[in-house]
Design a protein that fits this description.
591 residues; alpha/beta; Rossmann fold; pyruvate-formate lyase- activating enzyme; 21 helices; 20 strands; metal ion binding; metal-binding; Fe-S oxidoreductase
Length: 591
């Protein structure tokens, strides 16, 4: 029997952990097992062609909210030309409402409900023996036109009994690779499928060590834990991170290795801070799901937390060099526009490295799906079931937040406008008001309909500022602070990449006063660039020839020093050094 396992990942760089568990489990009985990974952005005709040419007897698909539509389209295309092939699907997206799904999709032969590592192998053995799969746990299939459903096993699988998922040598260079050391979650969030089963199961740390070492050997450098709450058990989490540290620091490519963990902010404490303080800088990245700071909403979704209490750990961890991603979910029950505005400002106020603004997905099987009428949850009936409206948040409001998410990603999460945004926010009551107003300006201008090159985003921000910086608003913004905004935007422009031309709106007035002045200005820049001073502050300058140094540097004058937090209005010169995609700015301290 030839078995083909197929993943349609959200992006090319992603990998599928679930199918690797299945592959190694099936190989304990069948050797002819193939795994093919595609992206949902690939042409479905090409995907179907590769599956057809594999000549498998059974084809299994891993299904999620982001790929179910494409998976079904591929199976429908293959069914007429593969009448004897058995198509099996599994995963969180099809583990609920199985009967309805099979009734609508007769081209699917079987559906694995819940964890499939044991059920899938048992199904294959049943089919090969010509037996009825009535005894296979966690299975839905059609028999004589009637849909049959076998309940999932009562006993949950032990992670330590599963096959080693990365036994096969694969090249993971440039890919994001996933691992798990726990299944389950200590919380009961009603928007999450983890709330549908109780308890947390743990992988033995030394089994994780074997997996981690194999991934490093095969070129993996970005490794994500799929653990719902990585710090659910402190002792376990610390041991896993010890192993990451022990195996990474002896690796010749240690500077490129990074692991990503999703943790609960309210489970941090002083012991965690002491541990992370000494952790190798750059090795770990953390994601924390805040979701909301509005207590009535947190109560409804069964995720009580005190953001005001644990937010103190955010700047502390950032001081350790740990990038922090904080998540918000728009469209949760009982959170109105005003309440979400407060949540956004609360989280923005701690300056996370990334603020991920997501939207509620009313998942099959989730508690919120069952209570959708109670809270007026209207959602897209097709995957990914995105919220459209609630009893306190209009559809119009959610559309505005979608646009705001786009602008937030461009101007905050990109990290390209750090200085400019910090200064611009002084013109607005709150961060939310800036991003919302800017997003609606984009909508008014029709800019969302096009893809813009990076530096075009500076033009868009300046045009918006010219609109809001009317004579009336100038009364509250003196010339110095407005120059500081211009300087901050200009500074970020230089930090993007070495500019050939500076747009007029970013030019200093002193550099625009006639050809003679312009020539003097250019001479001053070259004089500063040639100073021996730089050999004392920038490593490697002595090793560069004149042309290389000129090609990799830029010198700019600023009327204010925007890197000074005290709002200093002292004029200054900066040299920007561009090397291998990295940019560093150095203030010129010479005369």
């Amino acid at each position: 029997m030839r078995v083909l396992l197929v993943a349609l990942n959200a992006k090319f760089v992603h990998t599928n952990l679930a199918l690797r568990y299945l592959r190694e489990g099936v190989r304990t009985v069948y050797q002819d097992v193939l795994l093919r990974e595609f992206s949902i952005n690939d042409h479905l005709d090409r995907i179907a062609a590769e599956i057809y040419e594999a000549k498998a007897d059974v084809v299994g698909f891993s299904c999620y909210i982001w790929n179910l539509k494409e998976v079904i389209a591929v199976i429908r295309q293959l069914r007429p030309v593969c009448p004897k092939v058995r198509f099996v699907i599994g995963g969180p997206e099809v583990s609920f409402e199985a009967e309805e799904f099979l009734r609508e999709h007769s081209e699917v032969d079987a559906l694995v409900i819940g964890e499939g590592e044991e059920s899938f192998l048992e199904l294959l053995q049943t089919w090969q023996d010509g037996r009825d799969p009535a005894h296979v746990p966690g299975l839905a299939w059609t028999k004589g036109g009637k849909i049959m459903i076998n309940p999932a096993p009562v006993k949950a699988l032990s992670l330590n009994d599963l096959s080693f998922p990365y036994a096969e040598d694969e090249d993971f260079t440039g890919r994001i690779v996933y691992v798990e050391t726990t299944r389950g979650c200590p919380f009961n969030c009603q928007y999450c499928l983890s709330s549908t089963f109780q308890g947390v199961r743990f992988l033995e740390p030394e089994r994780f060590r074997k997996i981690f070492c194999q991934l490093l050997k095969n070129g993996a450098r970005t490794i994500k834990f799929v653990d719902r709450t990585f710090n659910a058990n402190k002792r376990h989490a610390l041991k896993i991170l010890d192993i990451v540290k022990e195996e990474s620091i002896i690796h010749p490519d240690v500077k490129r290795i990074r692991v990503h963990c999703e943790m609960a902010g309210d489970l941090f404490d002083a012991e965690w801070m002491d541990y992370l303080k000494s952790y190798p800088q750059g090795l770990i990245q953390l994601e924390i799901g805040v979701q909301s700071t509005y207590q009535p909403t947190l109560k409804v979704v069964s995720r009580p937390q005190n953001f005001e209490e644990w937010k103190k750990f955010v700047p502390e961890m950032q001081s350790f060099g740990i990038p922090l991603h904080l998540d918000l979910i728009a469209g949760l029950p009982e959170e109105s526009w005003a309440d979400f505005r407060t949540s956004f400002n609360d989280v923005y106020g701690v300056n996370p490295d990334m603020l991920q603004l997501g939207f509620l997905k009313v998942l099959k099987g989730s508690g919120l799906r069952l209570q959708s009428n109670r809270y007026g949850l209207l959602f897209n009936p097709d995957p990914p079931y995105t919220i459209l409206e609630t009893n306190v948040m209009s559809h119009c409001g959610l559309l505005q937040l979608h646009r705001m998410e786009d602008v937030l990603d461009k101007y905050y999460n990109s990290g390209k406008f750090t200085n400019a945004v910090r200064e611009v926010l002084k013109l607005f009551p709150t961060p939310f008001d800036f991003y919302h107003g800017f997003a609606e300006f984009w909508q008014e201008k029709g800019w969302f309909h096009r893809q813009w090159q990076g530096k075009a985003l500076f033009d868009k921000l300046w045009e918006f500022l010219e609109k809001v910086h009317t004579p009336e608003t100038k009364e509250g913004t003196d010339t110095v602070s407005w120059n500081r905004i211009r300087d901050a935007l200009r500074f970020d422009y230089y930090m993007w990449e070495r500019p050939n031309i500076i747009p007029d709106f970013l030019q200093n007035e002193v550099s625009l006063k006639g050809e003679e002045k312009a020539g003097q200005w250019k001479a001053k820049q070259e004089m500063i660039r040639k100073q021996a001073y730089w050999e004392t502050v920038i490593p490697g300058v002595k090793g560069m020839d004149r042309r290389q140094w000129h090609r990799n540097t830029a010198v700019a004058y600023f009327t204010t020093d925007i890197l000074q937090a005290d709002g200093s209005d002292r004029p200054c010169w900066y040299l920007f050094h561009y090397q291998q995609g990295n940019v560093k700015a150095y203030r010129y301290e010479g005369s």
